[in-house]
Amino acid sequence: MDNEITNQEELESTAAEIPAEAVQEPEESEEAPVEDSQAEELHQLRAEIMELRLKLALLTGGAAPERLCEGVKLAAGIMSADGTEPDDAAAEVLREYPHLRLVRRSVPQFSAESRGASDGFAAIRSIFARK
Predict the structure, then answer these.
(1) Could you say which DSSP state residue 110 is in?
(2) How far, in Å, are 14, 18, 24, 25, 36 from residue 21 at the CA level?
(3) Spatial separation of the C-alpha atoms in residues 85 and 105, rounded to whole Å
(4) Of 18, 20, 56, 58, which shows the fewest CB atoms inside 10 Å?
(5) Where are the domains of the chain?
């Protein structure tokens, strides 16, 4: 027991001799930038996910791919103002701004009836038949 007391006294005297500057305490400033960067990264990921959800909703709703950036900006503004979901915001954008919709044009189809060697396409068929 006496041995334990002397060891304790030696430790206390040794600790008193060490300057306070030499002892490293865990600093909160090192952890704060890590937490800030993680929070910033989380914020960026959430923003990217929201943008992708908006793009998907707009494309599913029929928006033109070349007008997608404009539609995303408009839908993001609606979402921030009204607090609506991405699908509802995309539907509202496509309803209010019809120029963002994809215009599907039908290509006319021509067909010619073949009546043997005397029709106008017989010469063309004979050219390709030789090759």
Answers:
(1) -
(2) 15, 8, 7, 9, 27
(3) 31
(4) 20
(5) 63-103
Cα–Cα distance, 40 to 82 (Å, whole number): 24
Paired residues of 63 in beta bridges: 101
pLDDT digit string (tens) for 66-90?
A: 999 999 999 999 998 988 899 999 9
The C-alpha torsion from 15 through 16 and 22 to 28, rounded to 10°, is 80
Listed in sequence order, the DSSP H helices in 18-85 are: 28-61, 68-82
Three-class DSSP category at 53: helix
Name residue 89's amino acid. Answer: A
Q: What is the pLDDT of residue 1?
A: 47
Cβ neighbours, 10 Å, residue 55 = 19
Per the structure block, which two tokens stand in for 120?
């106008």
